[in-house]
Amino acid sequence: MAKPKIACQLIIFGPRNKDDLPGVLKAVADAGYAGIEGGSSADPKELQKTLGDLNLELAGIHSGYSSFDDLDDTIAFMKSIDCKLLMCSGVGDMSRGLAAYEDAAKVFNEVGKKCHDEGIKFCYHNHSWEFKKFDGVVALEHLYKLTDPKYVYTCVDVYWVHHGGEDPVEFLTKNLDRVGTVHFKDMKDDTFAEVGEGVINFPGIMKVLEQKDDLEWIIVEQDRTNKTPEESINISRKYIKEKLGL
Hints:
single chain, alpha/beta, TIM Barrel, 10 helices, globular
């Protein structure tokens, strides 16, 4: 397979994404990443110029379930920068149980088709709470069953799969056909860690992903760090390069 490119989710930089986006992007480029995942609030022309100057790409946009009122604007933003992955997390009011996932599935099928028609992959990003069972039914499996794999892909977050009690290697193997992208972050002492610093089996994960011919991006997403963001993203990038060959 063609080797996927490695991007960095900018969440680790916190408010610096608004206060000093050019500095954040330079730090990402200096660490050896090929792209970023972020939001769609920046000026597209300025962002495109800054990314181009640093030889970075916009790998993906992450939005919440409540943001689909602005879907046309998001798609226009993405197309202007040649971005082809739209991630979404959450299904609304989860106190409604499976009904929330059933209603979300209808929305995701519509959003996914609209994105598909524009050349964009719409991907659902899991957390651990979707592995909760309702009357013996795993919520995330129910969501997958009700969504059209032609229009709704997965953004598999391996940390949250592990946190939810599943084996990321087995989970990816079972759902490989639907994978649009993968979020890499590790777990150490029951919290977020740099890739390679914790308990997640990344060599095993890569053996599964190597079977997939159309995986363009792997995205490092560490929500928080007790180091500087620069230290953390460099540790993750070094491990992925030296131990995983990417």
